[in-house]
Design brief:
Layout lengths: L10 H14 L1 H36 L9 H41 L6 H38 L3 H18 L3 H7 L4 H12 L3 H32 L1 H39 L3 H4 L5
Length: 289
């Protein structure tokens, strides 16, 4: 085990290391991401048809023959829509967290120089799906719902102040809770404990994480500009071909981005533990043995 602080947290190294992990597991991570997206779409479509389709038919029953919905039907539709939307959101988010947990597991095993199959990653992800979902819901509450509520209250005082405070609160919560999901997957301490652990691990390194996010954003803009230029040149040759390639490229870029975005927090978590606690990857990965 290395001594505490002997390997400082390096933003560029973390970004490169994450690219390496994603590259070595590209096929598996992209397949996991694709399966998760397809599953989320299917579940969303099924729940949408069950809740909204049946509710609409039931609501129209009160005005049968007139084509108008009765007041009771409208109330029923509204209630069902709320319940259906909440259930749909939770289940879709659960499926998404299955993918995040699976890729996190695969990333940690790669850092241990171990090769794992897609099936093994998904099996681990499935077992951790609901614990990770709890962490994701709390993170969403703290990074989105609370800042929006504060911003809504401040809107009555100053719209500009509301937007600024909302942005600051969202950014602060994102930085503090950035490695909460990897903590939930690797250490498995529980939802609230995962958030507290993330607060501890990111303490003293939040500016580094912010700088890392900024650099990745710049890389994304540069890649987007190059791709946009290539599509523009291709469009001047054949608009139909350019449109087809744009759709396919958009899907591919989305899969790559989601895969990398899921692996990056895991690599960040590992480097934070090395920098703060002197822990090596062998000890971190023991939980999976």
């Amino acid at each position: 085990m290395s001594a505490v602080g002997s390997q400082p947290f390096n933003v560029v190294s973390v970004i490169n290391q994450s690219f390496g992990v994603t590259r070595r597991n590209l096929g598996g991570f992209v397949l996991i991401t694709l399966l998760v997206i397809i599953a989320a779409i299917i579940v969303g479509a099924i729940l949408g048809s069950i809740f909204f389709g049946s509710a609409m038919m039931a609501g129209m029953g009160g005005g049968l023959g007139t084509g108008e919905m009765s007041p009771a039907g409208m109330m029923s539709l509204g209630f069902t829509a709320v319940i259906g939307s909440i259930l749909m959101l939770v289940l879709v988010m659960a499926i998404q967290q299955l993918g995040v947990a699976a890729i996190t597991y695969g990333a940690v095993q790669d850092l241990r120089s171990r090769t794992v199959s897609v099936g093994e990653c998904l099996s681990r992800g499935l077992g951790l799906m609901f614990p990770v979902l709890g962490v994701a819901l709390l993170c969403t509450l703290l990074t989105a719902a609370v800042p929006m509520l504060v911003g809504y209250i401040l809107e009555m005082v100053s719209p500009t102040l509301a937007r600024v405070v909302n942005f600051i609160l969202q950014a602060a919560a994102w930085l503090i809770l950035y490695v909460a999901i990897p903590v939930a997957v690797i250490e498995q301490p529980g939802a609230v404990a995962s958030l507290k652990r993330s607060v501890h691990l990111t303490e003293g390194y939040r500016f580094c994480i912010l700088w890392m996010g900024f650099l990745i954003g710049l890389i994304g803009l540069a890649v987007g500009a190059v791709i946009g230029l290539l599509f523009y040149l291709l469009f001047t040759i054949s608009s139909a071909l350019a449109s087809i390639i744009a759709v396919l490229a958009g899907i591919a870029i989305t899969l790559l981005f989601v895969s990398y975005a899921a692996a990056l927090p895991a690599v960040t978590y590992y480097n934070l533990r090395v920098a703060k606690e002197g822990t090596d990857i062998v000890e971190i990965g023991k939980v999976f043995d």
